[in-house]
């Protein structure tokens, strides 16, 4: 049959989608990007915050219409929304034939073949991002129940698992662990993904070698907390050892770490990052806030002072490192003074990349019980304030880079001009950071996945302009 997969949410979810595609292909099914021509449609959902749940519901309903129209035989819903609302999805959207949670990825072939999967789960009504309720014909009412810890997902793929890449051919995400053991007040992920569990290092290295043999130049190591790698198995220093092993893999050019955690960044990891030529001098460190009262209420480790010390230590140990972080505005009880503190923190540390999210009130989290919510309009305004500050700071720093000679990894033609190439510095991750636009270049000789030496000639927003040298 022709199988179409729609993957929503984070890169960790994307890897699950790639595994499902690989398993389906191995079973003899044909894959298609045309939803209208698919015999089976799979929606791999996200349920991290309300806007993600909204997108998941909208996508499921859109795909359900293909089944109503008679083109699609089966509709399968997988991922975090499926893990959280199994029974309700089947009851509210009868077009769904099978529901697979985050730990049931290997069951995709059975679900495609026709076996309906078991499903098992404070009312919630979905709203659009602008606050308006979904029209009555697509209103979905779901109920969620926190799973028994004994039933939490335990699955994680390995190097031998079939996987069909959905990213451009020159970079790939490698999930080195699954799950999370932290209890951050705003986060539902431990409930949806289970306890933290690391993959064996030899499995990761074998996968990296296989990817490099297929032409992958950059691998991005991901998990809920990448620096916790190995600690669940009492293997201190495991991440540093893994980085050094990966650094020796022929064919790889860049090894990037995403989703680090402030309390688990150790000296061996920083040393490996500083000493291994292929490991990107890039740290993605979601800090979430910088005001001590907010951090305490979020159940986040550390304080503003400890974060100051950590960031200085990182810069001392890894000269030239690029720092990326994310923050949340509008957490219950947050004040204007807390946001002022956050802005001072952003100004003090000159982050290369900052993302800011507005707080989402999620059932099943400890923060759900708080009653001192920040009004939505205030939350949005606070996000805009932090992002406006970051944009000004980045604009100033990027202008100072004009005239530098640097190396970029070519991602391919720019979306709006076929004679302009789009690439990235070693300090820029795909999709989430700015990029480099390369003009005056020979697009017949420079191809996707090539490394190119360029000179920076301009800056535009979060992006740089360059020409070959």
Provide the fold topology.
Elements: E1 2-7, H1 11-26, E2 30-31, E3 40-45, H2 50-68, E4 74-79, H3 80-84, H4 86-92, E5 98-100, H5 108-113, E6 124-125, E7 141-142, E8 171-175, E9 177-178, H6 189-193, E10 197-198, H7 201-213, E11 218-222, H8 238-247, E12 254-257, H9 267-275, E13 282-284, H10 292-298, H11 304-317, E14 322-329, H12 336-349, E15 353-358, H13 376-399, E16 405-414, E17 417-424, E18 436-438, E19 451-460, E20 463-468
Parallel strand pairs: 1-2, 1-3, 3-4, 4-5, 8-11, 11-12, 13-14, 14-15, 18-20
Antiparallel strand pairs: 6-7, 9-10, 16-17, 16-19, 17-18, 19-20
Helix pairs in contact: 7-8, 8-9, 12-13
Question: What does this molecule look like?
Answer:
There is one protein chain. This protein is an alpha/beta fold and 469 residues long. 32% of the residues lie in helices and 21% in strands. It contains 13 helices and 20 strands. The chain has helices at residues 11-26, 50-68, 80-84, 86-92, 108-113, 189-193, 201-213, 238-247, 267-275, 292-298, 304-317, 336-349, 376-399, and strands at 2-7, 30-31, 40-45, 74-79, 98-100, 124-125, 141-142, 171-175, 177-178, 197-198, 218-222, 254-257, 282-284, 322-329, 353-358, 405-414, 417-424, 436-438, 451-460, 463-468. The protein has a five-stranded parallel β-sheet with strand order 2-1-3-4-5, sandwiched between helices. A five-stranded mixed β-barrel has the order 16-17-18-20-19. The protein has a three-stranded parallel β-sheet with strand order 8-11-12.
């Amino acid at each position: 049959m022709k199988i179409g997969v729609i993957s929503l949410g984070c890169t960790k979810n994307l890897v699950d989608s790639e595994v499902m595609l690989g398993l389906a292909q191995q079973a003899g099914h044909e894959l298609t990007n045309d939803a209208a021509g698919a015999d089976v449609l799979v929606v791999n959902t996200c349920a991290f915050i309300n806007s993600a749940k909204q997108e998941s519901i909208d996508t499921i309903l859109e795909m359900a219409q293909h089944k109503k129209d008679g083109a699609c035989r089966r509709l399968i819903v997988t991922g975090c929304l499926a893990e959280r609302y199994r029974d309700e999805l089947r009851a509210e959207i009868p077009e769904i034939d099978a529901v697979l949670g985050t730990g049931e990825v290997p069951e995709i072939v059975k679900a495609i073949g026709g076996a309906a999967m078991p499903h098992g789960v404070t009312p919630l009504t979905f709203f659009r991002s602008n606050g308006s309720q979904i029209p009555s014909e697509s209103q979905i009412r779901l109920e969620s129940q926190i799973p028994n810890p004994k039933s939490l997902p335990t699955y994680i793929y390995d190097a031998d698992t079939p996987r069909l890449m959905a990213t451009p051919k020159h970079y790939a995400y490698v999930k080195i662990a699954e799950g999370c053991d932290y209890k951050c007040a705003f986060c539902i992920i431990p409930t949806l993904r289970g306890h933290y569990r690391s993959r064996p290092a030899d499995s990761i290295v074998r996968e990296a070698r296989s990817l490099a043999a297929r032409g992958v130049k950059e691998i991005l190591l991901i998990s809920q907390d990448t620096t916790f790698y190995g600690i669940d198995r009492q293997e201190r220093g495991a991440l540093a050892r893994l980085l050094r092993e990966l650094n020796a893999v022929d064919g790889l050019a860049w090894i990037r770490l995403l989703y680090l955690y402030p309390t688990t960044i150790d000296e061996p990891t920083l040393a490996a990052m500083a000493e291994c030529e292929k490991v990107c001098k890039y740290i993605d460190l979601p800090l979430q806030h910088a005001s001590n009262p907010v951090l305490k209420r979020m159940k986040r480790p550390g304080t503003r002072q400890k974060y100051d010390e950590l960031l200085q230590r990182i810069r001392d140990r890894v000269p030239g490192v690029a720092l990326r972080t994310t923050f949340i505005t509008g957490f219950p009880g947050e004040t204007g003074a807390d946001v002022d503190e956050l802005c001072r923190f952003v100004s003090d540390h000159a982050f290369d990349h900052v993302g800011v999210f507005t707080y989402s009130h999620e059932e099943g989290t400890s923060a759900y019980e708080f009653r001192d919510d920040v009004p939505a309009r205030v939350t949005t305004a606070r996000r805009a304030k932090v992002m406006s500050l970051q944009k000004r700071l980045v604009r100033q720093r990027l202008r100072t880079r004009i005239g530098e000679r640097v190396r970029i990894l070519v991602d391919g033609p720019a979306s709006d001009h076929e004679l302009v190439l789009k690439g990235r510095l070693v300090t820029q991750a795909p999709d989430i950071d700015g990029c480099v636009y390369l003009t005056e270049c020979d697009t017949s000789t420079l191809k996707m996945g090539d490394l190119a030496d360029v000179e920076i000639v301009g800056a535009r927003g979060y992006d740089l302009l360059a020409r070959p040298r």
